Amino acid sequence: MEGFEVVVGIETHVQILTRSKMFCGCGADFAGAEPNTLVCPVCLGLPGALPTPNAAAIAAAVTTGLALGGEIRPRTWFERKNYHYPDLAKGYQISQYEAPLCTGGGLEVVGADGVRRTVGLERLHLEEDTAKLIHAPSETLLDFNRSGVPLMEIVSQPDMRSGDEARAYLEALRQLLRWLGVSTGNMEDGALRADVNISVRRVGETRLGTKIEIKNLNSFAAAKGAIEHEAERLAGMAERGETIVQSTRGWDERTRTTFAQRTKEAADDYRYFPEPDLPPLVLDAGWIEARRAALPALPAARRADLTERWQLSDDEARVLTRDRATADYAVAALVAAGPGASRAVAGWISGPLFALANAEPALGEGWTSKVPPNALAELAALVADGTLTRSVARDVLSEMWSTGRRAAEIAAGGARTQISGSDALGAVVDEVLAAHPKPVADWLGGKESASAFLLGQVMRATGGQANAAVARDVLDKALARRRA
Amino acid sequence: MSGETTATRNATAPSHTDADPTRWSVAETAAQLRSGRTSSLAVTEVYLARIAADDEVIGAYLTVTADVARTQARSADARRTAGEDGPLLGVPYALKDLFTTAGVRTTAGSRMLAAYVPPDDSTVYARLSAAGAVLLGKTNMDEFAMGSSTENSAFHPTANPWDISRVPGGSSGGSTAAVAAGMAAFAIGTDTGGSIRQPAALCGVVGLKPTYGRVSRRGMVAFASSLDQAGPITRTAKDAAAVLRAVAGLDPLDATSGDVDVPDYGSALNGDVTGLRLGILDEYFTAGLDPEVRAAVEAAIDVLVAAGAVRVRVQMPSVRYAVATYYLIATAECSANLARYDGFRYGATSDTGGVWERLTAARSVGFGEEVKRRIILGTNALSTGYFDAYYAQATRVRGLIRTEFERALDACDVIVGPTVPSPAFRRGEKMDDPLAMYLNDIYTIALNLAGLPGASVPCGFVAGLPIGLQIMGRAFDEASILRIADAYEARTAWSTRAPAVPADAARIRPPRALDA
């Protein structure tokens, strides 16, 4: 790869989360359905069937386009993309070609290196999904439940320069789709599917190299792995002076290599033409603006708010905006706790609270109601004013999570208040020093770290309720007395 | 009136007596049922008997739905007994075999769909059923409505009832022959480039192609989606109005159907054409027009002028490109519309070989020559490198034609002229010359490109064969067309003539047990 750079563009197909399909009334939630039960003459392509567009799918695509900063075309139309395949009921896919619903825009991506950049977008258009081929050992079966499910195709500019960046782009896209509620974005279910276009060129070259397409990457890791492998392969070929032929390749997850699928000698001829069964799609300017106004604050804006207004680090901001529910929760907790407590609140959310939520994945976004934001702010305040130690507070939080009770109530009821009186701690420290003569001798012999062990023993003896700062002070003084 | 002087070889005198229900118009049938002198079931039985007697010679039907007809007739009689009334309640009719009918096979005249039984009803069939009309059967047609003679049916041809050696026109030839031969009180056809008007002219009946979007296309097997339109085939203009009113109107399940109120045409059919401006199109009275047809059409216009209408000369220079334009747009659309017939889910199938072998085998066996020809033409017109010169150019010309129609119809209320350049030709005469066949639609095709309504009404006979006067109007103004057609009928006697089917004629198709 030395001396070469890889150029990556990504086409994604996104299943839009709607109740019904793109052009008929059949249910679109095919995940658990028996094969071929969500079908009708329209999505089976029976003679005489006519499509009628799904307004909810159009609205979701417009929302997504606006959120991506693209320009919505007020007058567009559907086209037929003609090709034969058994999973394509009508022998054509209703799609958009000449006039996509949305053009331009971009997606801010934070790479693994923490550097932000914007990946430009070429277009976003609406189309319908195909049926599913199920390959059995001796035959191939067709399930038309997926036929006609609404899709958005989102095509990026060739703006990515590494597998990591491509991965970050896909993660940011999935985050946005979920944020808007327009798709589950689950790559493993095929709700988000990626085709990658990749080429290499010598550093400093401005023309694009010959493009290789890698189809049907169904995880972030696959996208990253396929790009990295293919970049190496192409750079090696270029190095050796071999000719790269435009072609389509697949990714073998097992061997972690790409393999040849077919060579594109001539561009596919899909014979697009305007879909005569559907009138042009004319969107009212006021309707588009209403959708723009209804957009929620988006991840990039929320991150900026957390770093600028709440003085959190980029990392903290990224973690707290992992999804819309978390971001809403975090801001509510930050507001409740007030300025000055933001780092602590951020820590409580991304540490103990996420751990509790991760332990109960079935809750999903419901975790945010287990400990209301103001209850978390109260807990943080009790730690800040010294009423609870951090370690006691962790236990209190667990109890808040499981019982729904408030921190002050739990602390008062269970003798969990911090022991910060130096007299009380003095007695405990004396007991600990008497019980552990060896570490005491080590410390006296110059091994400073032995005091950490002894402090730990003090905390343990008090059930974690000792104020750590006071305990250290008392311990240091007691040890100093022994030296003297 | 040149037609008047020509011998009408097998035409009988007007035979509309109470005695023969198969000669009653829709309005007369409804009146008879209303009077209680007969029942829908009795009338239906007479039609079924007529079909049994004559259809082996005419070949109008692909499927006779005797059981469905009797059930619907009994139901109509019950509704009438319960106090209901309606212009189509209990009236027997025929449906072109490209409207889906749940449980009754729908072939579109193709081997591909020879055994295809659809799961649901087309909107047109559903509306007729709701109106209480009685389905006698599904009529023959050129395969996927591609043709002008009904000879492209994969099953058998249809004879013109006026001369059984001749074609009835097409593609709705089964529907027009059924109405002409007294085998249905009315029929439904479809018109993509003239497929209602041309066979109506050649069979001596009234055929109306409504405005594109006036009648739902849902459940109509598609040929060319931007051109296809269903409409009535009847014996009188009044009947056409009644049938149109029953089937027309917005259908939320057809995104191209128009949200335009359907008027009660009855009040429009008042016989008054005073001051109505008849546009006479220079381009429709040129060298290709048979002189006798020309004379008959001019005589028909004279009748209307005598009744108070006014002649206005109009020009539409682009209509001479209409046939070429049509054969690019219609074939392009059909190449996509017929792609669904791949043999994997329904229709002709092959169970040997891989995906491509099966697909190729199903389409090779399932489609006839004309269908294949049009799929190839359309595929070519849409292909990279040809798209701009063919499909895109045709779309631009279509825009010009539409504009010229609009301009012409500013200067007049309707445009009148011939429906066909010559009367019915003999079976087999044009089968080896597709271009000659295509030119039979020279006067009807432009209207489809413009999406406007038009009708053909009988206006005389040439060599004993009927021909038609075409009346073309503004978008959604079928009322003006019907008013003129009705006024013309009232002043002439063409539409009261009926052909007599010779009893000793050879069968056009094998005998058949009445099915469905």
CATH topology-level name of chain B: Amidase signature (AS) enzymes
Mean pLDDT level of chain A: 91
Overall structural class of chain B, as computed from helix and strand content, comes to alpha/beta
CATH architecture of chain B: Alpha-Beta Complex
| pLDDT averaged over residues of chain B | 93
State the distance separating the first and last CA atoms of chain B: 45 Å
How many domains make up the coordinates of chain B?
A: 1
- What is the number of helical segments of chain B per DSSP (H or I, 4+ residues)? 16
Overall shape of chain B: it is: globular
Per DSSP, the total helix count of chain A is 16
Separation of termini of chain A? 66 Å
Give a verbal description of the structure.
The complex is a heterodimer of chains A (484) and B (516). With 484 residues, chain A is an alpha+beta fold. Helix content of chain A is 40%, strand content 19%. Chain A is built from 16 helices and 17 strands. In chain A, helix 13 packs across helix 15 (450-461) and helix 13 (422-435) packs across helix 16. The longest helix of chain A has 20 residues, at 220-239. Chain B is α/β, with parallel strands linked by helices and 516 residues long. Chain B has one domain: Alpha-Beta Complex (Amidase signature (AS) enzymes). Chain B has helices at residues 2-5, 26-35, 40-58, 66-81, 123-130, 173-180, 197-203, 237-247, 291-306, 322-337, 355-366, 369-382, 388-411, 434-438, 445-450, 478-491; strands at residues 11-12, 61-64, 92-96, 134-139, 186-190, 206-209, 230-234, 277-281, 310-314, 414-418, 454-462, 465-472, 498-499. In chain B, the strands form 2 sheets. An 11-stranded mixed beta sheet of chain B has the order 2-4-3-5-7-6-11-12-10-8-9, with helices on both faces. In chain B, helix 3 (40-58) runs antiparallel to helix 4 (66-81), helix 8 packs antiparallel against helix 16 (478-491) and helix 10 (322-337) crosses helix 12. The model of chain B is unreliable at 1-16 (pLDDT under 50). The A-B interface holds A 41, 44-53, 80, 82, 84-86, 89-92, 142, 267, 269, 271-273, 276-279 and B 98-100, 106, 108, 113, 116, 118-120, 122, 217-222, 224-226, 252-256, 332-333, 335-336, 338-342, 344-346, 355, 359, 379, 382-384, 387, 391.
